[in-house]
Amino acid sequence: MGIPRYIGRFSGKDFLTTVDWERDELLDIIDAAQDLKRRFLSRVPTHHLAGRTLFMLFYNRSLRTRNSFEAGIYQLGGHAHFLNPNDLYTPTLPEDMVPYQTEAISDVARVLSRYGDAIAIRIYGDPAKWHIGRGHRIVEEFAKWATIPVLNMEDDIYHPFQALADMMAAIEIERGRIRGKKFVVSYAYSGGLKPLAVPQSEVLVAAKFGFDLTLAHPPGFELEDDVMARVREYADRYGGSFRVTNDMKEAFEGADFVYPKAWSPKGFFPPYNGEVDREGARAYQDKFKDWITTLELLDVTDKAFYMHCGPADRGQEVTDEVLDSYERSLYFEQAENRLHVQKAIMAMIMG
Ligand code: CP
């Protein structure tokens, strides 16, 4: 078996958000991921990145992202190097940097660029002080200075690998026939504080893939204005549709896919307010405990597939019955596809 043609296809390119990638390029990534998945399941070696190193800088915890990247680069013949910010001269933010206490992102990025082949970063929430957009600016700062590709493993605006793995799961289950399917991205209740990254990435990619897209959330849980404008533009350009509702049940009616996931109301976070108001955000979220996905609620759909990026908050976002016994749940397929999508992108940009 020869070297697949997709190896090195996008050599040197960053992967910070799907917004920077054309739809056909995203479809090519999913094609490559499906090829790598077949090879993985058949135990065919795929050591296309032998000797390559991925640096992974995690400011937040992770199950899926860390382990799928580590396993993925190993399966491609390379090496994952885990970096805990507490063990570095930790870069936080350009404006927060104090000489002699931290090392500039520009320096960290350029040093790591001399040692390896890509830098992957996760930063949102507390490490970015819940200041919306701050985590993404850090990722962009790394990308500006690094001379090797930078990968966004989730910031406070985007989670592009998750969104692409989710599209792959939807395409697989529908055997490619997703056009005209109703895809619902909905708020789901959680007592915890959660970033906007997943819902924003889902609506962006679902609109780009031509779904008839519905976004459902209570008042106060609006997504960022620029994301909403882009989704509307994509719906026009790619032949889908886009509507917003404040009614979860109405959104679910006739749905083919439902993606109910918690996020927090941005009005309690800077820059919309001075400091993060954790108690205020939680108290506001607690008004919407009935935004939970149950088997009964799924009855109003058109036998929809249930989707969630994980980790799901059982008893808050979703009932145990849905996660454990709903036959049309894609929860584990989505997690599985993280491995294959990430391998595809690494193979395409690090090869
Ligand atoms: N969905 C996701 O990114 O999961 P982890 O937080 O476990 O990495």
What's the topology here?
Layout (H helix, E strand, L loop, with lengths): L22 H19 L11 E6 L5 H12 L3 E5 L21 H9 L4 E5 L11 H12 L4 E3 L7 H14 L8 E6 L9 H12 L3 E5 L8 H14 L2 E5 L2 H5 L4 E5 L16 H8 L9 H4 L6 E2 L13 H6 L5 H20 L1
Parallel strand pairs: 1-2, 1-3, 3-4, 5-6, 5-8, 6-7, 8-9
The structure holds phosphoric acid mono(formamide)ester (CP).
Task: Describe the model.
- The chain is of the alpha/beta class.
- It has two domains: 156 residues, Rossmann fold (3-Layer(aba) Sandwich), CATH 3.40.50.1370; 160 residues, Rossmann fold, CATH 3.40.50.
- The protein contains twelve helices and nine strands.
- A five-stranded parallel sheet has the order 7-6-5-8-9.
- Strand 1, helix 2 and strand 2 form a beta-alpha-beta unit.
- Helix 1 crosses helix 12 and helix 6 runs parallel beside helix 7.
- The longest helix is centred in the C-terminal third of the chain and has 20 residues.
- The chain is globular.
- The model has no long low-confidence stretch (mean pLDDT 95).
- The site of phosphoric acid mono(formamide)ester has 9 residues, from helix 2.
List keywords for this structure.
alpha/beta; 351 residues; globular; Rossmann fold; five-stranded parallel sheet; binds phosphoric acid mono(formamide)ester
Fourth CATH level, the homologous superfamily of the largest domain? Aspartate/ornithine carbamoyltransferase
Strand order of the largest sheet: 7-6-5-8-9
Query: Can you tell me the number of structural domains?
Result: 2
Structural class: alpha/beta
Count of individual beta strands? 9
Order of helices and strands: HEHEHEHEHEHEHEHEHHEHH
Mean pLDDT across all residues, rounded?
Answer: 95
Rg of Cα set: 20 Å
Termini, distance in Å?
Answer: 17 Å
**In the CATH scheme, what's the topology name of the largest domain?**
Rossmann fold
CATH architecture title of the largest domain: 3-Layer(aba) Sandwich
Bound molecules: phosphoric acid mono(formamide)ester
- Helical proportion, percent range: 25-40%
Molecular shape = globular
